[in-house]
Amino acid sequence: MKKITQQEFDALPRDDNGFKICPGQTDYSLIQNFGALCSFGEGCDFGEECSFDARCSFSLSCSFRQGCVFGAWCSFGEECSFGTGCVFRTGSIFGVRCSFGEWCRFGTWCRFGVRCSFGEQCLFGEGCGFGQSCSFDARCIFGEGCDFGEGCGFGAWCVFRQECSFSLSCVFGAGCSFGAGCRFGQGCVFGERCGVGEECLFDEGCVFRELCSFDERCSFGEECSFGERCSFGEWCSFDQGCSFGPWCVFGVGCRFGQGRRFGQGCRFKNRETRP
């Protein structure tokens, strides 16, 4: 792979739209500041702490080392890989199967294709969108209104702000927390000690481990199941066939469908709540 020098990079021409056209299958590790409006071909290799301004575009299978910084509205093709601590601004777009190391940070409204993977403690802004089967390690933090496709997997202690939405069969590790108004599709699975804000909505068949907690006015579809010592705020509602482990606690005004099952020692805050 050819290693391009700074002088050679500076001499590359720009097209009629102002983009500097940069060849693929090239080693750019000697270049650190690339400026704006660069368009790179497939299979490019970049070094550590590279810096790109706005609207750069990268084709398939480009690789970046740790600490790279990208401007707003950059786009990346399939199977690009990034090291730890990379920073992406507003509106970045990624193709399928891109991979990211730990501590990466993303601005608002970023978009990711299917099967992207992320390391621990990545940070995402508001309104990010993810395709199906994306995977996230522990302690990632997401802004408001993020949208996730089917079958995404999350490690322990991830944090989600208000109104995030999840499609079918997403899996969450222990201790994850969700803000108000989040929505979940069928068959999502939650680890122990997960915490949920007000007015979250769960479709049928979701599974919750022990010691999960829910604020008021959450609603659950058919046949959801809960482990031991889960707690619910006021006015939560459950469709038919839901089951609860021992020692769960329910707030005032909770409502239950037919065929519900309660473990021993479940406690209801007032008589009207008791089924």
SSE arrangement:
Elements: E1 2-3, H1 6-10, E2 20-22, E3 26-27, E4 33-35, E5 38-40, E6 51-52, E7 57-58, E8 63-64, E9 69-70, E10 75-76, E11 81-82, E12 87-88, E13 93-94, E14 99-100, E15 105-106, E16 111-112, E17 117-118, E18 123-124, E19 129-130, E20 135-136, E21 141-142, E22 147-148, E23 153-154, E24 159-160, E25 165-166, E26 171-172, E27 177-178, E28 183-184, E29 189-190, E30 195-196, E31 201-202, E32 207-208, E33 213-214, E34 219-220, E35 225-226, E36 231-232, E37 237-238, E38 243-244, E39 249-250, E40 255-256, E41 261-262, E42 267-268
Parallel strand pairs: 1-3, 2-5, 4-6, 5-7, 7-10, 8-11, 9-12, 10-13, 11-14, 12-15, 13-16, 15-18, 16-19, 17-20, 19-22, 20-23, 21-24, 22-25, 23-26, 24-27, 25-28, 26-29, 27-30, 28-31, 29-32, 30-33, 31-34, 32-35, 33-36, 34-37, 35-38, 36-39, 37-40, 38-41, 39-42
Structural class: mainly beta
Largest sheet: 14 strands, parallel
Arithmetic mean pLDDT? 96
Q: Which strand order do you get reading across the main beta sheet?
A: 2-5-7-10-13-16-19-22-25-28-31-34-37-40
Q: Classify the oligomer.
A: single chain
Strand proportion:
25-35%
- Judging from the principal axes of the Cα atoms, what is the shape? elongated
Radius of gyration: 23 Å
Number of helices: 1
- N-to-C span: 71 Å
Number of domains: 2
Total count of strands = 42
* Unreliable sequence segments: none
Tell me roughly what share of residues is in helical segments. Answer: under 10%
